[in-house]
Amino acid sequence: MKTKIFLNLAVKDLNKSIAFFTKLGFSFNEKFTNDKGTCLVIGENINVMLLVEEFYQTFTKKQICDTATTSEVLISISLESREKVDEMIEKVPNAGGSEYLEAKDYGWMYQRNFLDIDGHHWEVFYMDESQIPSM
């Protein structure tokens, strides 16, 4: 079996989270979906488990962070083009999230950020690796 990544995020309302990410164009793995959580598919081997807070809390003794004041993780996803980055960010406000920070264009990399409905910080970017400057 290939190595897979399953990132886990606490969400307040699972159905609202599913609706939000569906509007951004993501899909879900139904094998890992019930009333306590769902598996958001990012790529072939990359997934994000969206778990209702009560269920998430069963996996840790730590307090769930308040995403309004604390950053627990920055989730970065590469997309195929600058246009795809802009397309996703344009969907965010209608889905219930908000654009976060200003867009950054480094020539070889273009990135934009958003906060989902639970305040989790996401970055979407396009990178042309052939244009990365020498260090």
From TrEMBL:
Residues 5-43 form the Glyoxalase/Bleomycin resistance-like N-terminal domain. InterPro entries: Glyas_Bleomycin-R_OHBP_Dase, Glyoxy/Ble-like_N. This is VOC family protein. It comes from Flavobacterium artemisiae. The lineage of its organism: Bacteria, Pseudomonadati, Bacteroidota, Flavobacteriia, Flavobacteriales.
